[in-house]
Design brief:
Number of helices: 3
Helix content: 25-40%
Largest sheet: 3 strands, antiparallel
Number of strands: 3
Strand content: 15-25%
Distance between the termini: 34 Å
CATH architecture: 3-Layer(aba) Sandwich
Oligomer: single chain
Shape: globular
CATH superfamily: GIY-YIG endonuclease
C-alpha cells in the first residue's frame, strides 16, 4: 500500500506527502530529518489516504497540493476530524 498523508505543522500549515511506509515517514518528520518540516515541529498526523500504487499516490499528492485539492482536503479529510478534538 501507498499513503498520501497530511501533517499539521506547528505554524498551522498543512504538509502533504506520500510514502509506502507511513510509520517510518512520520518518524522521519518528528525527528527533524525532513528538510521541509523540521523547522515547524511538532507535526501532527491529521489524516491519510491509502491506495494500491505509487503512481496513484503521487497523483493524489499532486492534486491535494493544488488549489482545489487543498480545499477538498481541508473540508473532507482534515477539518472534518476537528469534531473529535478537544479545544
Amino acid at each position: 500500500m501507498w499513503y498520501v498523508y497530511f501533517l499539521k505543522l506547528s505554524n498551522n500549515d498543512i504538509y502533504v506527502g506520500s510514502t509506502n511506509d507511513l510509520k517510518r515517514r512520520e518518524s522521519s518528520h518528528q525527528s527533524g530529518r525532513v528538510t521541509s518540516t523540521k523547522t515547524h515541529l511538532p507535526a501532527v498526523l491529521k489524516s491519510y489516504v491509502a491506495v494500491e500504487t505509487e503512481a496513484h499516490a503521487r497523483q493524489l499528492e499532486d492534486y491535494f497540493k493544488s488549489g482545489s485539492g487543498k480545499a477538498v482536503a481541508l473540508k473532507r479529510l482534515i477539518r472534518a476530524s476537528r469534531a473529535t478534538e478537544k479545544p
